[in-house]
UniProtKB/TrEMBL annotation:
Record's keyword annotation contains Magnesium: yes
Organism, as annotated: Nibrella viscosa
InterPro entries: Ribosomal_bL9/RNase_H1_N, RNase_H1_N, RNase_H1_N_sf, RNase_H_bac, RNaseH-like_sf, RNaseH_domain, RNaseH_sf
Keyword Metal-binding: yes
Keywords, sorted A to Z: Cytoplasm, Endonuclease, Hydrolase, Magnesium, Metal-binding, Nuclease
Protein known as: Ribonuclease H
Gene3D superfamilies assigned to the protein according to its UniProt record, in alphabetical order: Ribonuclease H-like superfamily/Ribonuclease H, Ribonuclease H1, N-terminal domain
The organism's taxonomic lineage, starting at the top: Bacteria, Pseudomonadati, Bacteroidota, Cytophagia, Cytophagales
EC number(s) reported in the record: 3.1.26.4
Assigned protein family: Belongs to the RNase H family.
Predominant location: cytoplasm
Amino acid sequence: MAKSPKYYVVWKGKQPGVYDSWADCQAQIEGFNGALYKSFESRSLAEKALSEKPHLHIGAPQKAGTQGKLPGIVGKPIPDSVVVDAAWNTATGDMEYQGIYLPTKQTIFRMGPYADGTNNIGEFLAIVHALALLDQKHSNIPIYSDSRTAIGWVQKKKANTKLDPTPRNQELFDLLARAEKWLQTHRFANPILKWETTHWGENPADFGRK
């Protein structure tokens, strides 16, 4: 059975545009630092995506087509980026988070453990920590997280946690308030992208405790 044709959007590459073959797309992104691209199942979807910001599409599934299928994501993570992750101990409730620089796998920050936390809070704080650090360096490289919830919180500039404050996690709630204030008082151009574990393997910032 013949495969359905795909169309490839290149937002950042040698020549941005819509391409109807992987070979043509690859020619635009190969050797281009920070290339942004993705495949679509129709030219109309691809042309619409090209007119929009890439972070709205990269790391997010397309809407189901007429046959109800979700196409896979083509490509690899953007090499020049920061990847964050959090770890939550189900026995103790302690949470910690960290960020790595993807090209070198170097840990650029590691925080915690914090008492009575949650994994989503850790992911949220990790993204904001990375944003603040990159802001100091005047860098707008992407940040990857494998938590859609935390990415949504960052976009809304509010951690919508159901966690109750306690004397033990007061420090954590202080950090949340600081993070929300930072988001509300700073502008940033860094794309916040979803780390696609299914396609790319384990999050490189994972604590390895699964």
